[in-house]
Amino acid sequence: MANTVFPVPAPVLAPIQGSDETFPVNRIFCVGRNYLAHAAEMGVAVDKSKQEPFYFNKHPAYLVESGAAIDYPPQTENYHYEMEFVVAIGKAGFEVSQEDADDLIWGYACGLDMTRRDLQLKARETGRPWDLGKDFEESAILSPIVPVAQTGIVTEGKIELAVNGETKQSSNLNLLIWNVREIIEHLSKFYHLQPGDIIYTGTPEGVGPVVAGDKITGSIEGVGEIALTINK
């Protein structure tokens, strides 16, 4: 094996609930505006009959395990939480039908899509990519992944988030505009999905800012819980 000019980064390994094994993370796909009420609070109307889902990516190196304490990120004054249902892919698939989509699912988790909202909105207003607002260090928080063998296929359930004990987001997975089967079908038209890919499926309404010292907690019925502290 050839020598490298600097150390090769270690693989990103996500914990699995109740297991010593880990889930090697390949890519992180995120679905934008996938709850009607959240799209509305962001000032955007979504018409499923005329629009397709859209996506952005986060680098796997930016993944942080639930329970961590992280610093408030640089170059923002409007740092937001977004609670999300996460799907972990365990089988390769390309141009997958909705009928076959469930076969690709390895498990589920709770996720936080942390966002520099001011930078995202600035990019949106100028027609530029969202990378500075979405794809930055410690911006993808993930709870332990629960195998689908334990949960069965999840299509509904309460999704909630609180900041310092005060509920901010409360919705149900059955309110996703594009459900998980539709997302896998659509995304797999553009990418060869691979084991280790994870999909953040979108956030419900109630997003908002956090500041140094805040503690975020969230849960998804039948899936698990997530926690994050913003350092003082």
From TrEMBL:
Any idea where the Fumarylacetoacetase-like C-terminal domain is?
28-230
Sorted UniProt keywords:
Hydrolase, Metal-binding, Pyruvate
Name recorded for this polypeptide? Fumarylpyruvate hydrolase
Name the InterPro entries on file.
Answer: Fumarylacetoacetase-like_C, Fumarylacetoacetase_C_sf
Tell me the Gene3D superfamilies matching this sequence.
Fumarylacetoacetase-like, C-terminal domain
Q: Which GO terms describe its molecular function?
A: acetylpyruvate hydrolase activity; metal ion binding
